[in-house]
Amino acid sequence: MAPRDRPGALGASGRSSRVAGLDFDALSEQQVVARIIADCDDGRGGWVVTPNIDICRQLRRDPAARELISGASLVVADGMPLVWASRLRGDPLPERVAGASLIFTLSAAAAASGKSVYLLGGAPGVPAQAAGALALRYRGLLVAGVDAPPAGFDREPGEFAAVRKKLAEARPDIVFVGLGFPKQERVIAAFAADLPGAWFIGCGAAIPFAAGTLPRAPHWMQQLGLEWTYRLASEPRRLFRRYLVDDLPFALRLLITSAAARLWP
């Protein structure tokens, strides 16, 4: 895995943009996919982390999690407020790159190039359902395996070792890890050494999205930065505090300070 071992580490675009205290690679989704497939062709592995507003907010208060994601090969923005903030600062990111989108575009590229994928995370049966849907959608997609580990498996040495062994034996080229932040990042950091030629994608809710068990907002809402309102309406009890009490004030402050930084450098 290629470490992101310095501030402003550069992706394929040769440029990074600092937003909310993080250095994001200024890459389009197409460039991210091309980078991963090219590295797989050359036997080089890596790790993609996709921070959104909620993750950026958590990182401000959690130095250990911040140190954890510093090991990622690519850091891309999963959230339109982050893209807007970069534009307000005059150092724009090209677009939002979401794990929920990468599971589709990267699976399409994997099918076209003969690369295999592995789905790790989700409720029992959901990764297999997602794998079936992706294989049906992208003819020729090689699914090396799926796993829906039980809740708390990462705190049980025996269960953790079993999940790790199953993945290592499958030897996939691309691993979608949908366990939520920061668990999925801790799991990736632990498992990556077993598969030095594989790429790991921290993808949040992408696996149930691909399975169709969790509906995703229409494309126009995604483009306008309104996907959070769709998810809030779908899961109000779970997401009310996170989105409206914690994340919305953080996003507004970020946009205001980003605009101020450009006007009064």
What's the gist of this structure?
The chain is α/β, with parallel strands linked by helices and 265 residues long. The chain contains twelve helices and eight strands. The strands form two sheets. A six-stranded parallel beta sheet has the order 4-3-8-7-5-6, with helices on both faces. The protein has a two-stranded antiparallel sheet with strand order 1-2.
How would you characterize the overall build of this protein?
The protein has a 6-stranded parallel β-sheet, with helices on both faces. Helix 1 packs across helix 5 (99-113), helix 2 crosses helix 3 and helix 4 runs parallel beside helix 12 (236-263). It is globular. The chain is of the alpha/beta class. The protein starts with 15 loop residues before the first strand and ends with a helix. It has helices at residues 29-41, 53-61, 63-69, 80-88, 99-113, 126-137, 157-170, 183-191, 206-211, 219-223, 227-234, 236-263; strands spanning 16-19, 22-25, 46-49, 74-75, 116-120, 142-147, 174-177, 199-202. Residues 1-10 have low confidence and may be disordered. Helix content is 51%, strand content 12%.
Shape: globular
Alpha carbon gyration radius: 18 Å
Number of helices: 12
Question: Would you report the number of β strands?
Answer: 8
Poorly predicted tracts of residues: 1-10
Cα end-to-end separation? 36 Å
